[in-house]
């Protein structure tokens, strides 16, 4: 029986919609949204999620690159809108997980920037998880195997004690390669069933 659930954040618990940003992009007269390709390129994203730069510095770097092609004003407006976007949190899903884990621990394992603690506080999730393993705080991001080694060591548990849930195939494959029973998240019903089967 497992006693530790390692669960991803974005795409599992927190969900972002592109609709609002796409509409804003169109209002600026742009035919396509250039922000995501820029911001989530490895060159910009990796330093932000491994602690090399802060969330604010990440935004500054993206703004600078966008300004070279679209001008300072458009770049400023795009990044300002991006920074202010709000995501939806699946509170019901979290409650159901908690109901299955009266004896175990729920650990957030996420590739996130320095803004994560602020984000958790703003949506009422501060203290909701027994532990938070943030890639930007430990200096390494999933799917690197060392991410999982650091997480397990910090939690004081073994691979056999855990299950891992993520919506990114490479992250799931990495965890499985270490012997952690893992699920590629596609819907809450399947994920809850997985938790019940492994943790009861």
TrEMBL record:
It holds the Pfam family Hydrolase. Keywords: Hydrolase. The keyword Hydrolase applies. SUPFAM superfamilies: HAD-like. InterPro entries: HAD-like_sf (IPR036412), HAD-SF_hydro_IA (IPR006439), HAD_sf (IPR023214), PGP-like_dom2 (IPR023198). Coiled coil: none annotated. The keyword Hydrolase applies. It comes from the Bacteria. One of its GO terms (molecular function) is hydrolase activity. NCBIfam families: HAD-SF-IA-v1, HAD-SF-IA-v3. This is HAD-IA family hydrolase. It comes from Celerinatantimonas yamalensis.
